Amino acid sequence: MYIHQVAAYLPAAVVTNEHFTRLNGLSHEWIIERTGIRERRKAAPGENTNTMAVEATTRVLAAATDLAATDIDLIVGGTYTPHDTIFTMAHAVQHAVGVTDIPVVSVSSACSSLLNAIEIVEGYFALGKARNALVVVSEHNTAYNNEGDTVAGHLWGDGAAALLITKERLAPTDLRMVDLLTGGAAPVGKANTAVTLKPVERGIVMPFGKDVFIHACQYMARVTKEILERNQLGVDDVTYLIPHQANLRITKNVVQQLGLPEERAVSNIDYLGNTGCAGAAIGLADTWHQLQPGNHVVITVFGGGYSYGAMLLER
C-alpha cells in the first residue's frame, strides 16, 4: 500500500510561552528547557476537531492529482479529543466529502492513533474491502486542556492532518508502506494513570509525566530498531525519523539511543507543541517535498495508555 498524498491544517492563532508566564508564572526559558516548545496553535471559536479534520481533507484532496473524492472507499479517523462521540470526526469528514455507502471508522489509542488508523486500512486492503482510503487525524487539545495546570497545561496545541492511502501506486512520489508494527503496553509502569482525559472531570491531566517520558523513550527506540531489523536495514539507511511530537527531550533521547544524527529527526514541537496523534502526520506533510527516490522514513509513536508503534516508508 502507498501514501499518495498528505496535507495538514493548523489554526491561525498562535499561543506563545509568554501567555503562560502571565497566567501562572512559568517562564519562557523554563518551558523551553523542559519541553522545547516555544509556541503552539489554538483553534478559533467555531473550530473543533471535526472542522480541522475537514480542512485537512480539503487540502489533501486538492493536492492529489490522481485521486478524486469519489474514489475513496474507506475513511478512518483518529483522535482522543472528539467534538462529538456519536457523529464522529470520521463521519464529519464523510459528510464533507459526500461519498456514501463506504466504511467509516473512528479509532482512539491516544497519541499513537495515526499508526493504528493506518493499520486498519491495511486490514481492509488485505481483505479486499477497500482500495483507496482517507486517514484523518485531528486533535483539539485546547478544548480539554486546563491552562492553569503548571504540570502539563503548557504542552498542548491543536492541528490536523489527512493522508490518502492507496492499494496501488498512482504516482512516482507515492511512499510505499514497507512495514508497520503496533502494540499496547497497558500493564507497563503507570500506564493507567500517567496521562488521562476524562471529559466529565478535569480534562487532560498528566500526574506522572516522568513515567510517560521514560517509556516513550524506551518504546519508540525499541520499535524503531525492531522494524529496521525486520527489513534488513540499519540506522544509516534512515533518511528521516518522524517521532511522536511530545517533547523535544524525548526526540533527542530516542535519536541518541539509535545513534542517528539529530538533523535526521523531524520536529515541529517548538512551534506546534504536542498536537497528539496529528503531530507525526503533520511532520510527514512538512517533509513530503524533501523526499527523494530511495529515501527511507520511519514514523514512530507512543501514546498514553500506553500504546506504541513504528511504520517504515520508502519512496
TrEMBL record:
Residue ranges constituting the Beta-ketoacyl-[acyl-carrier-protein] synthase III C-terminal domain according to the UniProt record: 228-314
Keywords for this protein: Acyltransferase, Transferase
GO molecular function, one term: 3-oxoacyl-[acyl-carrier-protein] synthase activity
InterPro entries: ACP_syn_III_C (IPR013747), ACP_syn_III_N (IPR013751), Thiolase-like (IPR016039)
UniProt GO BP: fatty acid biosynthetic process; secondary metabolite biosynthetic process
Keyword Ribosomal protein in annotation: no
All copies of domain Beta-ketoacyl-[acyl-carrier-protein] synthase III N-terminal, residue ranges: 107-168
The protein's name in its UniProt record: 3-oxoacyl-ACP synthase
Species name: Hymenobacter crusticola
